[in-house]
Specification:
By secondary structure, this protein is an alpha/beta fold. It has 14 helices and 10 strands. Helix 13 links the parallel strand 9 and strand 10. Bound molecules: zinc ion.
């Protein structure tokens, strides 16, 4: 979204010097008839963000500048801007080729509520971007240890941490994958509801606007955004690369049949707080691999999947019975290999 900003002569306002203030959008600037060199009124919205609220018409200021025109092309990638019917904002439509948009998508993808990939912050994404190592989210799955350990300030340890996080993201359920890929207006809750009705990528990519608006909280605009997303060949290519990388492109309920027998016959207790997955996800993983999740530790417990802040009573009991405590990393290695 392209937001016009006014560069001001510095002015003291509620304790800080203000030099820039938002002009909101094209219509706002036109309505006030603001031009270069005008005197304007500026206010701090909520006492924090400066915004222009009006123009001073009486005397002084105007330097006979020309009528202000909104830019026609994206300042970052040069694509021609579009203005969506009914919206005030101009947008750069080059979603998959405009650097700040691509980086934004990567940041969203790795964020906690999306794929929750540890160790990949804004700075690292910038670095990977500058090196040309990552252009889209599917590129993450092609990263090698040597790509990462060669980065400035990166050792083997941090490289491993990131690669482990990327690996673990392959177990993130379909509803969160759907949120993570960043279809416009498809937030966390909406993604959940859509994933409940369209239980796999296969189903969702052929969904019609009518079918989609049948889902609670999905309006025409969101439905249209989803349909448009899956009409684009570059997006379909991206999704198929993600699928090939081993991501969950279908709801867990369809996978209640066992994926492996690695934990067959085992009784496993989950205790503590985890970083890479939620408890429910671990529970599902145990079940998919043939194990049983049980509530309390006994002689029959095979091992405890132990996160941070495990209860001291449980720890004592496990130690007394000689039952192994397994970290989430060890557990993930066990079920994934
Ligand atoms: Zn752009």
């Amino acid at each position: 979204m392209i937001t016009p900003v006014a560069n001001l002569e510095p002015v003291q306002l509620s304790g800080t010097v203000v030099q820039r203030a938002t002009l909101h959008n094209e219509d706002f600037v036109r309505q006030l008839g603001i031009r270069d060199g005008d005197n304007v009124w500026v206010e701090k919205g909520g006492e924090i963000i400066p915004k222009i609220v009006g123009k001073e018409d009486s005397g002084g200021g105007r330097v006979n500048s020309e009528e202000w025109r909104f830019i026609t092309h994206c300042p970052e990638c040069g694509a021609e801007l579009v203005r969506v019917e009914g919206e005030a904002a101009w947008r750069c439509p080059n979603e998959n080729g405009c650097p700040p948009q691509q980086k934004g998508k990567l940041e969203h993808y790795v964020s906690r509520k999306a794929m929750n990939i540890d160790g990949l912050g804004e700075e690292t994404i910038d670095l990977l971007w500058e090196r040309g190592l990552v252009r889209d989210v599917a590129d993450l799955y092609e990263l090698r240890e040597s790509d990462l350990s060669e980065l400035e300030g990166f050792g083997q340890k941090s490289a491993h941490r990131i690669l482990d996080g990327i690996e673990a993201s392959k177990q993130v359920p379909w509803e969160r994958v759907l949120f993570a890929i960043g279809i416009r207006m498809v937030g966390e809750t909406t993604a959940k509801k859509i994933a409940k009705r369209f239980r796999s990528l296969q189903e969702l990519q052929w969904a019609t606007v009518e079918q989609l608006t049948g889902v609670e909280d999905v309006g025409g605009q969101i439905a249209a955004n989803i349909v448009t997303f899956f009409e684009r060949e570059d997006n379909l290519r991206l999704m198929s690369r993600l699928e090939q990388a081993g991501l969950q492109m279908a709801s867990a309920a369809e996978e209640t049949e066992t994926v492996s027998e690695k934990l067959a016959g085992m009784s496993i207790v989950i205790s503590g707080v985890f970083e890479k997955h939620t408890r429910d996800e671990y529970k599902a993983m145990i079940e998919h691999n043939g194990g049983r999740n049980v509530g309390s530790i006994s002689k029959k417990t095979s091992f405890v999947l132990a996160g941070d802040n495990m209860g001291p009573e449980k720890r004592k009991k496990a130690e007394a019975l000689g039952i192994k405590l397994m970290s989430e990393e060890e557990f993930l290695l066990l079920v994934e290999n």
